[in-house]
Amino acid sequence: MAYVPVERRRYRRSIFPSTIEYGIKTEVTGETFKGVAVNISESGLCLYTSSVLNEGQEISIMSVLPVPSRTAAVRWSKSLNADVCKVGLMFVK
Description:
This protein has strands spanning 14-24, 32-40, 44-49, 58-61, 71-79, 85-92. By secondary structure, it is an all-beta fold. The protein has one domain (14-92): predicted glycosyltransferase like domains (Thrombin, subunit H), CATH 2.40.10.220.
């Protein structure tokens, strides 16, 4: 018998390879950053970025997304190497 993993997520993820532009909510510099989204759901998205984002930090998403929220909070962040971080974001309503 083949192993079938149990999906524990509340919302189904969709593959969503797209460049995302965002700003960090606590900064008043107006600086924007870019990252590459891998997947998206109603509750959040997974993003690869060269910026260091910390758990709990909020970002404002400037790109058009197929979800109503444009604000997201960092749920987790993993440094893959000196130039790339993989970040799990949760949309804030």
